[in-house]
Amino acid sequence: MAGPQRTPPLAILGRFLRFGLLAFGGPVAQIAMLRRELVDEEGWVTSSRFNRLLAVYQALPGPEAHELAVHLGLLRGGRVGALLAGLGFMFPGFVLMLAISWLYFQVDLAQASIGAALLGAQVAVIALVTRAVERIGRHILVGPGLWLIAIAAAAATVAGVSFLVTLPVAGAAYALAGRLPRGAVYGAVIAAAGVALAWSATTHGLALLQPSGATVGLGANRTVEASPVAVFLSGLKAGLLTFGGAYTAIPFIRGDAVGNGWLTDAQFLDGLALGSILPAPLIIFGTFVGYVAGGPLGAVAMTAGIFLPAFSFALLLGDRIERVVDNPALHRLLEGVAAGVVGLIAVTALQLGGAVVTRLPAVPPGLAIFGASLALLFLWKSRAAVPLTIAGAALAGWLAFGGT
After folding, report:
1. Which of 121, 245, 279, 323 could form a disulfide with 273 if both were Cys (CB 3.0 to 4.6 A apart)?
2. Cα separations in angstroms, 8 against 12, 74, 82, 96, 391
């Protein structure tokens, strides 16, 4: 039986550069674009094979649209094709984000109009993350056990427990629930979360939701210069723990960047807002974080760390990846970890929201922008919904806060 048709390397690069330039609308729109052109129109793979690959990469960490692009490049051009497809898909967004990051430091953010517009965009980003918690949770939290794990992970995070403890325990608990009596496993999870939360309540009091290490206020001044190695490792950690979409990388990147003083919560939210309007996977906001943390070299280091796992799965495992991920025990472990990540994102949304509220000149207009943005993101299904909502919130922020 003949193997799949081969595509010249330069043709693969050009094709995925074009996809990268048109990658608006988030992973759903990006995956639909790949399916329409490469499956329905050109038959690079069958529809059933594409669906199976999508299921595999949704179970694994990393931005699934980018991982699909790498794997499709592998099928049509070997490892060189995989590398070129992945680079082509991410390169336009990386270049645009790098340029915007440079421009961010050239603009006087102390101007009332610019600061007000950014503040409005930040409010919309909180709505965007809130919407993501619901959307991701709907697909991941498909049973009471996964809901319980997500709630326990959120409680542990509020209590100050590191994700290095929370996520392995979440994965192990759900994997064990398939082998041991579920009541005993979930009872232990509830007890552990309760103890952690009670301990935190007695030691931290009402400061539970205050983001650790965060500084508030607009501005583009770097707080602590980060080493390229530290930035790369932060990106690699996020790339290895990004389950169910780029939003799940938010708590990990923010934990390092804001917690270590590389940038402020305001700057982090600015990066998310800017990443939301670009034709790229949202995870490209990490390029901005890397730039603020360590300049152009930091931007490259963060981007390389985030995307390295997405390249590695296809390049190292190839077609074997479908058989590896077919292991039921591994599925349950990854599902438990993913449920724990949902809890982390929910807490991060609350912490970021609290940081924004402290900077609002007036709370009622901010709540109105948040409510309108959230309604648009729930009701408007167009691929242009996210960038236009962010832009509209920036305009509303300028009108509401520009004179204060």
Report:
1. 121
2. 6, 12, 12, 27, 40
